[in-house]
Amino acid sequence: MAPGDDKSETSDADLAETSDDDLLEPSGRAVSEPAETAGPKSPWRAPILLAIGIVIADQLTKHWAVNRLADGSEIAVFWTLQWNLAFNSGMAFSRGQGLGPVIAVVATVVIVWLLVSLRTSGGKLNTFGIGCVIGGAAGNLIDRAFRQEAWLRGAVVDFIDFQWFPIFNIADIAINVGAAALILNAVLTGRRVGHHSSGGGAV
What we know:
The chain has 203 residues and is mostly helical. The relative contact order is 0.13. Helix 3 runs parallel beside helix 5 (124-146) and helix 4 runs antiparallel to helix 5. It has six helices and three strands; from the N terminus they run H-H-H-E-E-H-H-E-H. It folds into two domains: 3-37; 45-187, no CATH class. Strand 1 and strand 2 form a beta hairpin. It is 60% helix and 9% strand. It has helices at residues 3-22, 33-37, 45-68, 100-117, 124-146, 170-200; strands spanning 74-78, 81-88, 156-161. The chain starts with a helix and ends with a helix.
């Protein structure tokens, strides 16, 4: 074999080894491996933090209302809006009076179910909705559990009064906003799936 052929083979081998080594870190792992093996961010963090924030805001405003409006006074804010203390043993917006224990159990089941669903929840809108519903349900559940001597028979504190609409609180707002976000997310997701399905069938 000619000397020139030996040099050519050696150069090709060195080039192959160098190319392989360039793709490896000193530890011997591929450079791209950390990006591939890095796990996704926890789906729990954002909705749980949102829920905690809602519970804190809800309980602080209820505490203020109980202490400030306990004498039956009303505070005018603007238009027909006023702060007016009321206690609700039913559902949101004063519905289902006397069903406190049943509502409390249902709220607990909903919270647990939403927490479990966080494992597979997708999209910011869905995450926002879940966080709002959990926070609102937990805020009212705290009232039912701790504002009376009997367990789960407490009344929810309401104080936001438009005078032409049932009195409500921050937790009620969060529940309804969260439910609207979840419904909107379901509609948008359905449209995207339908669009992809129709597009996939086109030739």
